[in-house]
Amino acid sequence: MKLLALDIDDTLIGTGKMPSERLKRAIRLAEQNGVTVVLATGRGFLGTKAIRDALSLYGPLIHYGGAVISDGRTGKHMYENYLRPADIVTAFAIADAFDIHAQIYEEDTVIFRKANAFTERYTSTLRIPYLEDPNLLYRPLDNVPKVLYFVDVECEKELTAEIRNLLPRHISVLGSKPGFIELGSVGATKGTALERLAAMLGIEQSEVTAIGDNTLDLDMITWAGTGVCVANGNDLVKSKADLVIGACEDEGVAEYLESLFA
Fold first, then answer.
1. Integer distance in angstroms from the first to the last C-alpha of the chain?
2. Domain 85-185, CATH class in plain words
3. Banded pLDDT at 97 (limits 50, 70, 90)
4. Of the candidates 185, 156, 192, 155, the residue with the CA atom closest to the CA atom of residue 168
């Protein structure tokens, strides 16, 4: 292994948690053995800052589900693949039809039309700026990496299928956490971003390991030479992974890295 891509939420840490000392040691151990460790997340650059700082990871960062690759220290974009403005308008029309919350991102700011309990939890947990704009769809929409829907977990599977059927084929419809439905460009996945980053670093596919938990991670798990899913992960992702490791709450990633490098 020369490149290790790690999802954050429900893979490395639970909601509102910070990396444990054990996880920090395990990642340092991997780096000491010549592994480049990168975070591959649905979060934005600022939303990953506390995690990057805790883990001292300042190399490349895959974020917004693969729509952006940034320099982990400066935030300068190395690659970006944004949604089309017309598709964002369509996504909000669908959200209105199903009466579900939708939000977009401009750099590190999350923007929604009306604040609610979800937006309060979301922005405070990630410590990111936000803007309530009832006229959101009249803003310039040229630099939006993704649309996030928040839905009731009980109807998530059914809604995901219905939404996928309504959207054009060049829009991906994936899950990152229970109740989170993420819309992005089909060409802007964690898998395509990881493939691009590996090429930038001169690392072969067979030398790449990716670890995640949900369908937003599936593309990178199936592309990587070794694809790994945590035990608490989505059943489809576990079925496609080369290896299933311990659950997030049991520090499965730390245990896996210790087994390889200790």
1. 14
2. alpha beta
3. very high
4. 185
